[in-house]
TrEMBL record:
Pfam families: Peptidase_S41 (PF03572)
Single annotated GO MF: serine-type peptidase activity
SUPFAM superfamilies registered for this protein in UniProt: ClpP/crotonase
Protein name in UniProt: Peptidase S41
GO terms for biological process, alphabetical: proteolysis
InterPro entries reported in the protein's UniProt record: ClpP/crotonase-like_dom_sf, Tail-specific_protease
Domain spans labelled Tail specific protease: 245-452
Gene3D superfamilies, per the entry: 2-enoyl-CoA Hydratase, Chain A, domain 1
Length: 473
């Protein structure tokens, strides 16, 4: 495929002054992305060369005034936002500013006094002892904000007494609702908080699900189930009524394929004897297509057509295939696919090439009589492989989607990463473009549910709502 030339943006760079030069980082980012990202040309063609040139000029002016790594990082991320909202990113590999680590100091937190204070309180508030992921924190109100002091952590990067996140002043409309400090102590701003009764709180779109340990009140069964489903890191199975079973799959990560297959195999007899099945993939951001293979025979009713992708062949991009040969999660068959793919790609440097079929058609020996109805729970966090699974699932007469429109980050996919020469930044970009473009683009649109669940229905009631619909079909 013909690729248009990009005019040089830079004449030269000054190396005087600080050893860190944001201009050189921008030059590396721009050159690497333009020459290797499979969606770059598509984005510029859609938006126009004039708009792209104007964007470059505006970003360059900001780049030249960036004084440190953190400021440069912010500007370069804004440059990447021009292209798409998913399957692209830029990591900062240094905590080079005070701002990034300001809450990492260890505070002398008096847990005994805090517990006495909690016992003396009459009203139920957010203050208390909470647990999420690998952390136990004390959430304490200080002025108009709540700070979460770590009490216990299995993450060696975090110590007791450090502040893991801050619930900001709710009256401040100019500030995100939560300032969250990631594993590397960098900052992430979270815009939403969802309260589930008195004992559970969700930060972001299922980003963090917290449970109160002290002082705790009784939670409803529906809330308890929701928290269990949303907080699990591994697939699980649950019978939720006489006629309905549920499979929860939080991720299609290739490393979880064996776990997904094991859960399906263990409970397959029950699934195939039950009228209805709910597959809950809320919060599932994708992974590997192979990870959902064991679900397809269960939902199958007619041939499943999957449109292929074309790879942008470059030396950097093709090196990913060589990395697969060392991946312990890859089977020998998958490693042979990677080797054959590498050989084909190397013969077409600079071009888009499909190393598989334009369209594949999956068929199975039989249509299972049960389950008769299958509901898939979806939300705005579903992207990439999760959306690819939905495109396959929707071809079954048994399947209906319940929830809200997905993220719309599928057409440009198969991510790879590379570090800048300085090592300060890591670019995450994409290697493939779907052959569905332009006739059935998903990026920026998403996949809509068959049954839209509006905001009036609490998140923890989605499962019951879906079960009720399936059981009355």
């Amino acid at each position: 495929m013909k690729r248009f030339a990009i005019l040089p943006l830079f004449a030269s760079f000054c190396s005087f002054g600080s050893t860190f030069q944001c201009e050189s980082e921008f030059e590396w980012l721009k050159s690497t992305f333009e020459n290797n990202d499979a969606g770059f040309q598509y984005s510029v063609e859609k938006k126009g060369q004039d708009l792209y040139s104007a964007h470059n000029n505006a970003i360059l002016a900001r780049v030249q005034s960036a004084k440190n790594e953190a400021q440069c990082h912010t500007v370069l991320i804004d440059w990447l936002k021009f292209f798409r909202k998913g399957h692209v990113g830029l990591g900062l590999n240094t905590n080079g500013t005070v701002e990034a680590t300001r809450e990492s100091e260890v505070h002398d937190f008096d847990l005994s006094s805090f517990k006495q204070y909690l016992k003396s309180k009459r009203d139920e508030t957010l203050e208390g002892i909470w647990q999420f992921s690998s952390y136990t924190v004390a959430l304490k109100k200080e002025g108009n904000v709540h700070k979460a002091y770590i009490l216990e952590s299995t993450n060696p990067s975090w110590k007791a007494g450090q502040v893991k996140f801050i619930l900001n002043d709710p009256a401040d409309s100019n500030t995100a609702k939560v300032t969250f400090f990631m594993g590397d102590h960098s900052t992430r701003q979270i815009e939403t908080i969802t309260y589930l009764g008195n004992n559970e709180v969700v930060l972001g779109n299922s980003f963090i699900v917290m449970s109160r340990e002290e002082p705790r009140q009784e939670s409803s069964p529906e809330i308890t189930r929701y928290v269990r489903l949303l907080s699990t890191k591994a697939p699980l199975f649950e019978k939720i009524s006489e006629n309905t079973v549920l499979v929860r799959i939080p991720s299609f990560d290739h490393a979880l394929k064996k776990d997904i297959d094991a859960v399906i195999a263990e409970h397959l007899d029950t699934i195939l004897k039950t009228e209805n099945l709910i597959i809950d993939i809320r919060g599932n951001g994708g992974g590997s297509d192979a990870s959902y293979a064991s679900l397809l025979p269960i939902l199958y009713t007619n041939p499943i057509r999957t449109v292929g992708v074309e790879y942008l062949s470059t030396e950097l991009n093709n090196s990913r295939m060589l990395g697969f040969l060392q991946n312990p999660h890859f089977s020998e068959e998958e490693k042979q696919w990677a080797k054959d793919g590498y050989d084909i790609l190397q013969q077409h440097i600079g071009s888009y090439i499909n190393i598989g079929e334009d369209v594949t058609v999956a068929t199975f020996d039989k249509v299972e009589p049960l389950p008769k109805s299958i509901g898939v729970l979806v939300d705005s966090s579903n992207g990439s492989t999760a959306e690819q699974f939905l495109l396959a699932a929707k071809q079954s007469k048994k399947v209906k989607l319940f929830g809200q429109t997905t993220a719309g980050v599928l057409d440009i996919s198969n991510m790879y990463k590379t570090d800048s020469p300085s090592g300060v930044f890591t670019l995450h970009y994409s290697l493939t473009k779907s052959l569905r473009i332009p006739h059935m683009a998903v990026d920026g649109v998403g996949i809509q549910p068959d049954y839209y669940i509006d905001e009036e229905l609490p998140l923890y009631e989605w499962t019951s709502f879906t079960r009720n619909v399936l059981e009355t079909l």
